[in-house]
Amino acid sequence: MIYYLPEGGLGNRIITIFNAQAIFEEKGIKGVVCWTPSRGCFCKWSDLFCRYDGDGIKIRTIRPTDYLFHRLGIGRKSINSIYEAEDWYKTDFDKNKTYSIKMFCGFMIPQKTDGIKLLPELQKEVDTVLDKDNCSKRLVGIQIRRTDHTLSIEQSPIELFEDYMDKEMSLDENVRFYVATDDSTVLERLKNRYGTRILHYSQRPVSRKSVRGMKDAAIDMFALSECDVIYGSYGSTFSVAASYIGKKELISVCSEK
Question: CA-CA distance, 175 to 107, in Å (whole number)?
């Protein structure tokens, strides 16, 4: 048995869960993903998602105080190693022993990415904001990470996003853009420039420190996953996770290409 502890924000966690599924299946072992609400992702799994649909893997929410394992219900078993390096998957796991693995992000491109489903009420919000029943126009996802993500700010300037968006408009005059950003000034700038072509979900400031903020983030991620193509900020796992969920092309917007 493997107890797998994803860390970081929502994008990091989604990617690591997909990686865990792949490794568990490859090794022929069962595993439990221990989802811990934290400052970077302040919610329970059940606040956002349905029961995980994947063979050999379960997801359970634990309290931060359970992080040391003595309350996880595995205290009587042998925890042989804690792996933090990316090469843990090379280990030949003994099926009769128990392991714990702490990971901040994934390291492989997963093949199976359809096990995570939004709660119906959140998926309804996605369908509404994308106006899926009434519009068949090309939809381009735009994910612009700002606030504390220095790498994205430095390598993915908004002007470069606008260049890509202008090019999309030259190819299809009816194109629409779904914008996911943690910076309200970025959203306002794009709305002023592109008008009604811009779709977005919430006007609230994005917050990882509240359940409501995490619900908004999940809606953004799954809306991006339903776009025809995604332009994402360099170094941000949020758009990577969205591209995995929807099996869509991801273009990393980077000034040093």
Answer: 33
